[in-house]
Every structure is written in structure tokens, then in C-alpha cells.
């Protein structure tokens, strides 16, 4: 049996990873969409094992020290990470895995699982990214400027990925993702 | 500007390369479908530069000695080859090139242009290949046996290709080819 393929989707905040995946995931109930672990408290309506695996800081740190995360990071005092065991188990069973991770985490996964397929979702332009972030109207101007500056740095890391998908229209970008999935499964190296 | 990508489609006789391409090519008028040169005489209705570039044996041999072919071979006393210059010129201009070549020729292209994308069109099974070759009713039994024996040897070379597409249904196999084309153009290494 062939091993599953790990697909990682990443890109700057505002590039539209979520919208692209909303178009892509319903067509792939066969894929394992990995959930992150976090130490932040559940928000109303969030359930353990659905949005996140909720852990105490001690549990998280113990798992992290044991090498139990494919990647992990701390934002605003809360830790987030991708549990390694669940992902590896699916891959061994021949199930393809999809991870959606921000850029710094993606770089860690490249180190820890270089056989993965790394897909960078890019905005059509920095101007368009600004328009999108402003359009959300959820953040104040200084936050948007910070995000744009970070996005610019992250764009420079796109070359480390296997593929770059420009998200001009989410449906079309989802088709690109689809083509990548189909083609990668046809690679001779995966057919045994 | 990005260089064009050379896509090479190959596989055993009877695997259905032609039918797959008949479904694929009309959607890609932008690609350069390379024509072979040959020393065999034109058949009625064949025109120079349409089905083949027709050459004398002396012209062909001169070009071959100059390294003017990406691959060449002799069948039944006639020589066939893929002229290098036309292909390279298109690639330099950023135009993608499609070659359809039998397996021995494909191996030569892998040597001469390893940056190419090599796609092996495989029959669903050897039984199905036999059925297809018999169904054509154009060849006698001994010819079919020879082709099957050769196909078996060629199947063992599939692992040298970048991708393997199983041609169960030509329309579906053409979609696989389409996905490969889309995905390859999204590769980070090709986006400058």
C-alpha cells in the first residue's frame, strides 16, 4: 500500500487560505484535515477535538519536549501546535493529510517532514492584500500595517515551498489545489 | 519570462497515447506539439511539416551527427527523430512543448533534456492491452505477440518517468494529464 501524502497549505494572513480550503475540502472527505492543539481556553461553542485539541500548558510543554509536535508556536501567550502522532498514523494507513498552518509553522514542518508537499497561497498583490485586510474591518490600522509588514517578509519565503498558488479568485485557486493533489498522486515515486 | 516546459507523453503501443492526446490537445492550442522528422516517403495525403518533416537519409544523418535531434531511432529501415532546434526555440520563448514519443526515444530525451516532464501512459493491465491490440484487427497474431512482449519490457521502464497515468478511459486520463500540466506550471521553481 502507498503511504498517504502530507499536503500543507500556508501563506500570509489575508491571502485567503481559509476561503480556498472552504472550496476544496468538501470534495475531499477522504482526506484527514488535521486539527491543532492549543493551550488557549475554549471559546463559547468550541469543543475539544473539533476546532482544537485543548490542553493545559503543562500537557502541551510535555508533548513538545517529547517531540510530539510537527510544529508549534506561541502567539499572545498561548501555544499552538500540530500533534505529530495523529498525522503520522493517517499517513501510514495511506490516508492523505491536509494541514493549514501559518508560515513560521510551515517552515518547521519542512524540517520535520521534508517529504510533504508545501503549497504557498499568495495574494495577487500586496495592494490587493491591503484591500482585503482593510475590508475585513475587524482590525485597527496599526494591526493591519503590522500584518502587511509580516506578509511582505513571508512572501520572501514562498520560494521554499513546492508550489505557489495565487489566490485571485478562491474557486479558481481551489482548482489549482485540486490539480496539485491529482498530479502528486500520479507521481511515479508514489506508485509502488 | 519563464521558460516553457517540455512535456513528453510516452508508453507502450496500444496504451492509447493517441486517444488521450486527442482529448487533451484541442484544449491547448497554446502548446507546441512537436512533429517528427523522418526519412520514410510521404504517404498519399501527407504533407511536409504537417504529419512529418520529410528528409532524405543523407539530410537526416547529417543532422543527427550534428546533435540536431533530441532523440532518433530507426524502424523498418526508416529513421525518425525529434528536431532539437524547433523545440528549444519554443521553450526559450516561454512556450510549452508536447512530445509524443515511443519508450526508447523517451529515454534518449531524458538524457538530453532532464528538465522535461516525462509522462508514462500505461494500459490498465496487460490483459486489457492484449484485448485492445487484438480489437484493432489490423495486425496478425505474431505481430501482436511481439508488441505484447515489448510492452512488458517497456512497462518495467515506467519507473524512470516523472508521472504514470493509467489509461482506463481516455477522457479521464486526459484529465490527469491536464492536472499534471496545471500543477507543473504552479511549481515554485518555475515561477520567477
In terms of DSSP E residues, the strand content of chain A is 15-25%
The domain tally of chain A reads 1
Assembly annotation: homodimer
H-E string of chain A: EHEEEHEEHEHEHHEH
Rg of chain A to the nearest angstrom? 17 Å
Q: What is the CATH homology-level superfamily of chain A?
A: P-loop containing nucleotide triphosphate hydrolases
Based on helices, strands and strand pairing, what is the structural class of chain A? alpha/beta
CATH topology of chain A: Rossmann fold
Shape of chain A: globular
> What is the CATH architecture assignment of chain A?
3-Layer(aba) Sandwich
* Largest β-sheet summary of chain A: 5 strands, parallel
Q: What is the CATH C level class of chain A, in words?
A: Alpha Beta
Strand order, sheet with most strands of chain A: 2-7-1-8-9
How would you explain this protein's 3D organization?
- Two copies of one chain form a homodimer.
- The first copy, chain A, is α/β, with parallel strands linked by helices.
- The first copy, chain A, has a single domain (6-190), classed as P-loop containing nucleotide triphosphate hydrolases (Rossmann fold), CATH 3.40.50.
- Chain A is built from seven helices and nine strands.
- In chain A, strands 2-7-1-8-9 form a five-stranded parallel β-sheet, sandwiched between helices. A four-stranded mixed β-sheet of chain A has the order 4-3-6-5.
- In chain A, a hairpin with a 2-residue loop joins strand 5 (69-75) and strand 6 (78-83).
- The longest helix of chain A has 17 residues, at 170-186.
- The radius of gyration of chain A is 17 Å and the shape is globular.
- Chain A binds chain B through residues 120, 158-165, 175-176, 178-180, 182-184, 186-188, 191, and chain B through 120, 158-165, 175-176, 178-180, 182-184, 186-188, 191.
Amino acid at each position: 500500500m502507498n503511504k498517504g501524502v502530507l499536503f500543507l497549505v500556508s501563506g500570509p494572513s489575508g491571502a485567503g487560505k481559509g476561503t480556498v480550503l472552504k472550496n476544496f475540502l468538501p470534495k475531499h472527505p477522504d482526506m484527514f484535515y488535521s486539527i491543532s492543539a492549543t493551550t488557549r481556553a475554549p471559546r463559547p461553542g468550541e469543543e475539544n477535538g473539533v476546532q482544537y485539541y485543548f490542553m493545559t500548558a503543562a500537557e502541551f510543554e510535555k508533548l513538545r519536549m517529547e517531540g510530539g509536535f510537527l510544529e508549534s508556536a506561541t502567539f499572545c501567550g498561548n501555544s499552538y501546535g500540530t500533534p505529530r502522532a495523529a498525522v503520522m498514523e493517517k499517513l501510514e494507513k495511506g490516508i492523505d493529510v491536509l494541514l493549514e498552518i501559518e508560515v513560521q509553522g510551515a517552515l518547521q514542518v519542512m524540517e520535520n517532514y521534508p517529504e510533504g508537499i508545501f503549497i504557498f497561497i499568495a495574494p495577487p498583490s500586496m495592494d490587493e492584500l491591503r484591500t482585503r485586510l482593510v475590508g475585513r474591518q475587524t482590525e485597527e490600522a496599526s494591526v493591519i500595517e503590522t500584518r502587511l509588514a509580516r506578509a511582505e517578509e513571508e512572501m520572501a519565503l514562498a520560494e521554499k515551498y513546492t508550489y505557489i498558488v495565487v489566490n485571485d479568485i478562491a474557486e479558481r485557486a481551489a482548482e489549482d489545489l485540486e490539480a496539485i493533489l491529482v498530479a502528486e498522486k500520479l507521481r511515479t515515486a508514489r506508485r509502488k
